[in-house]
Specification:
Number of strands: 19
CATH architecture of the largest domain: 3-Layer(aba) Sandwich
Structural class: alpha+beta
Strand content: 25-35%
CATH class of the largest domain: Alpha Beta
Radius of gyration: 25 Å
Number of helices: 12
Distance between the termini: 37 Å
CATH topology of the largest domain: Rossmann fold
Helix content: 25-40%
């Protein structure tokens, strides 16, 4: 769960991360008037959306006068900003952040995240900070280095100092790394990213831009972050699935995938990809889902014109039963005008009853016995 830039900076500043002076504006007039609060000769006008890539999409501008600030804010507010991370639907700009433009002489990248293997905090650093860092990192992971941090001790600080020096980050910024470490630990964050970590002509380091991600699973321990739930900008289809106890992620393929269990879902996707199939989605039916919840999830797939067939891969357990899933699928097909082919592979508890339900309701179903057969048949039907 991401925080917008201004709230990310506000949180990090509490731990001692230097940030440029700035303020939030919701109207062009407020933006122009608010510039009087800043001791600045130039201003940075930043759209506050959650996705990255704002600068390359025209969502960040540097201007010289308060009147120009007002004009830029007027241009951005209400504008749908499309970046590489938003996808084609983009995000609507509802607030804009104005801050003092720094006299930057160097830009670096710094981030802290959880290492998936050890569970320790991983520090990442790169000399290639700036708006194109993510593109470079995707193409070549050698542009950044990593090290693990498990404490804030003199010995650890010595190691971090040497590590950052390799990325062109001098000792003056070591405190920023440990401030980010403290913020991540105390707030149970999954990410603290500072890009660029900017060095000014006076030799001072600032978080010129920052991104903080909260762990949604830990939110119940942090009621102070509850308000940020409403700031998230989920895909409406994915949000509808979430409301019905379905974990759904839209993809670009033509095979609708209905699976219970994340592990089984990942295995299904791997097999589809190896067979040159293209999943239209990732779906994980939660153990709390009812047949009506499942029906809603399947209806969302049937409404997608790109879906040419649906692969139903279910292993009934002690909570999610095969017949419950089959009832949901039958309801969805009964309410939909689209009747795309359905390939069903079911095993486990009440699987036989589930397959009987699909046949009794005369769905366009082909029953197969193995995952391999289900994959092959789905790929063939999807063309």
């Amino acid at each position: 769960m991401l925080l917008p830039e201004h709230r990310s900076k506000e949180l990090l500043a509490k731990y001692g991360v230097p940030i440029p002076p700035g303020f939030l504006a919701r109207t062009a007039n407020d933006a122009e008037t608010g510039c009087g609060k800043l001791d600045a000769s130039r201003y940075v006008v930043k759209s506050q959306i959650l996705a990255g890539g704002r600068g390359l999409a025209g969502g960040v501008r540097i201007v010289d006068t308060p009147s120009a600030v007002g004009e830029e804010v007027g241009r951005l507010l209400g504008h749908t900003l499309v970046t590489e991370q938003t996808g084609p639907r983009g995000e609507v700009v509802s607030t804009v952040y104005i801050e003092t433009a720094l006299d930057i002489v160097d830009s670096r990248f710094m981030a802290l995240a959880l290492d998936p293997e050890s569970g320790a905090v991983m520090l990442l650093a790169s000399a290639a900070g700036g708006v194109e860092f993510e593109q470079r990192a995707r193409m070549d992971d050698s542009v950044y280095d990593t090290m693990l941090i498990d404490s804030d001790t003199p010995e650890t600080r010595k190691s971090v100092t040497a590590f950052l020096k390799k990325a062109g980050i001098d000792e003056a910024a070591v405190d920023i790394a440990f401030a980010g470490y403290a913020a991540l630990i105390e707030n149970e964050l999954t990410l603290v990213e500072i890009n660029p970590l900017a060095k000014t002509r006076t030799g001072d380091w600032y978080a010129a831009d920052a991104k903080v991600a909260l762990d949604g699973n830990a939110l119940f321990r942090h009621p102070e972050f509850e308000e940020f739930k409403a700031l998230q900008n989920p895909d409406p289809i994915e949000a509808a699935a979430q409301q019905n106890n379905i974990n759904l992620v839209k993809l670009e393929g033509n095979i609708g995938v209905v699976v219970n269990g994340a592990g089984l879902g990942l295995a299904t996707h791997d097999m589809l990809t190896e067979a040159n199939g293209k999943p239209a989605n990732f779906m994980d039916i939660r153990t709390t889902a009812t047949s009506l919840n499942i029906a809603k999830g399947v209806e969302l797939l049937l409404q997608d014109p790109k879906v040419r067939c649906i692969l139903l891969n279910i292993h009934g357990g002690g909570i999610t039963l095969g017949d419950t899933v089959a009832e949901g699928v039958s309801i969805a097909y009964g309410h939909s005008s689209r009747k795309v082919p359905l390939v069903a592979r079911m095993a486990g508890q009440n699987a036989d009853r589930g397959l009987a339900i699909l046949k009794e309701h005369r769905l366009p179903v082909e029953v197969v016995g193995t995952m391999s057969d289900a994959i092959a048949r789905s790929v063939a039907l999807a063309g």
